[in-house]
Design goal:
Elements: H1 5-48, E1 53-56, E2 63-69, E3 74-80, E4 88-94, E5 100-108, H2 121-125, H3 144-167
Antiparallel strand pairs: 1-2, 2-3, 3-4, 4-5
Length: 168
């Protein structure tokens, strides 16, 4: 019995901790979801201006969400791998002609001072008017993984846009 007692105490402690974690999750999950939605809405407004954004059904793998601005601009919310797995979350707006309207960063978990250089407005502006990876800007020296990750996200957005247009 004395050899079993520590195992039973440990099992009881684990059960109590699991219960507390489940309760904390139940209490905070709606607040976390709302904070995430607010963050995306704030990013949409900051990058593409004050407007009404409608979330559309998304069927493309690798794309978190698709939004349409009231003027028809398609915006793709994409999380891409840079130096960090899933380290780049970007909003990529695509014009009706299939060119990039604008690129904005929602969150960036790349190396400070190196990978975070892709969030420089001058670098992001180089994507405007491009048609994806074929005429994307050069990689930033020292931040090639991050640059490549953003380029892949832009390419995914433009390809998804063209696939959607072909279906229509």
């Amino acid at each position: 019995m004395q050899k079993i007692l520590p195992s039973l105490v440990l099992m009881l402690v684990c059960a109590v901790v699991c219960g507390l974690l489940a309760a904390a999750n139940a209490v905070t999950k709606d607040k976390i979801a709302q904070a995430e939605a607010d963050k995306v809405q704030k990013s949409l407004t900051a990058v593409f201006g004050e407007d009404t954004y409608t979330e559309l059904q998304n069927t493309v793998e690798g794309i978190t969400a698709v939004y349409q601005k009231s003027d028809g601009l398609m915006i793709y919310d994409i999380t891409a791998d840079g130096y960090a797995k899933g380290g780049i979350r970007a909003l990529i707006g695509i014009n009706a002609d299939g060119t990039v309207a604008s690129v904005g960063i929602v969150s960036l978990a790349e190396t400070p001072g190196l990978g975070t250089k892709i969030n420089d407005p001058a670098y992001l502006a180089q994507y405007e008017g491009t048609e994806g990876a074929k005429d994307a800007p050069d990689a930033i020296s020292g931040a090639t993984y991050s640059s490549r990750g953003l380029r892949n996200a832009v390419d995914l957005a433009t390809n998804a846009f063209h696939q959607t247009k072909e279906v229509e």
